[in-house]
Design goal:
Largest sheet: 7 strands, antiparallel
Shape: globular
Number of domains: 1
Structural class: mainly beta
Helix content: under 10%
Number of strands: 14
CATH architecture: Roll
CATH topology: Pnp Oxidase, Chain A
Strand content: 25-35%
CATH class: Mainly Beta
Number of helices: 3
Radius of gyration: 18 Å
């Protein structure tokens, strides 16, 4: 099909990875929140967050955070976090649908683990956990939105998705959770690979990225 029509979607999440961001609260505890506006280039990480949210507030004062990438089977835990906020009181625009929760790990049924280089906790169940430190935290052009530029510091991964060289991810074993127009989606079969992807390993069933 080549025809198209003009639409005006209420939200525009065409498809990206679901992520749990952990940040440090003022009292030293860890806030945990789902998000999907994350991308990386090299060792630079960019985030898009609501300025009224606890994650953004924490990052303006305490730059350490962890990006925890859940696998597809963790979608119920991600959704348990969705109506929760670490902010107290609840921001007015969230008051009808959200409630304050300070212990989000327990609320979601997830396990905190200390990070190596940052103060925020990692999520043990997430196969990829990325320690980061914010360089700049600023409001974006659109009211109520903020942009964070950060440095990637360290990557933790579950051993079952890592190649023996401890550098490459076993793409066939990594089952990330996707967030598409407020729906949780799992990955399908591999279609192909970029010309710069590393060669397959062993019998050709393990792909590298």
């Amino acid at each position: 099909m080549t025809d198209s029509c003009v639409i005006k979607p209420p939200v525009f999440y065409p498809g990206s990875l679901a992520v749990l961001i952990s940040t440090e609260n003022a009292d030293g505890t860890t806030n945990l929140a789902p998000m999907s506006s994350v991308w990386t280039i090299g060792e630079t990480v960019m985030l898009g967050l609501q300025t009224a949210g606890q994650s953004y507030r924490n990052l303006t004062d305490r730059p350490d955070f962890v990006l925890n990438y859940p696998s597809e089977d963790l979608w119920p835990q991600v959704e348990r976090l969705a109506p929760l906020t670490g902010a107290d009181p609840v921001p007015p625009h969230k008051a009808e649908q959200f409630r304050t929760e300070r212990d989000k790990f327990t609320a979601a049924g997830l396990t905190p683990r200390p990070a190596d280089l940052v103060t925020a906790m990692r999520v043990a169940e997430c196969p990829l956990q990325v320690e980061c430190r914010a360089r700049t935290v600023r409001p974006a052009g659109e009211l109520g939105l903020g942009v964070v530029e950060a440095q990637l510091l360290r990557v933790h991964a579950h051993p079952d998705i890592v190649e023996d060289d401890l550098r490459h991810i076993r793409v066939d074993a990594w089952r990330p959770l996707f967030y598409v127009f407020r729906h949780y989606i799992q990955r399908g079969p591999e279609l192909g690979r970029n010309f710069r992807a590393a060669n397959t390993v062993g019998a050709g069933v393990t792909g590298r990225q």
